[in-house]
Amino acid sequence: MTQIRVIAIAVIARPSDGALLVYDGYDTVKGEAYHRPLGGGIEFGETAEAAVRREIREELGQELADVALLGFLENLFVNDGKPGHQIVAVLSATLVDPALYARDEIAYTDNNVAWTARWRSEPDDRPLYPDGLAALLSQTRRTRP
Length: 145
What we know:
By secondary structure, this protein is of the alpha+beta class.
């Protein structure tokens, strides 16, 4: 990839314990499993909020509430041996359907690939991507009343 990709991700925390809804990724070159919140590309003319709502609707068939911008991250990375560059809009949100908070896993399909979303509690041995997300979440938790 030789272009910067602009994406929006949804930080959805389970009310009972603060676990984050993430998908499991795997870098075959590094042999590394990782987690990342759900979301995807922002289309031309679309706001970050509209993009994250659309992505969650497409991926999980679910609606979001209480969507709020937490910040932006710049993510330079290598995944599966390929360099990437992303500008990431990080948005907090809640799921409209409270039943999803009780499920351990949520199966979904994105671009004809089967994925599983799960609740990630701290600590976890897998890194949370994009880089800088954990620090941003820690910072926003400290600044909230």
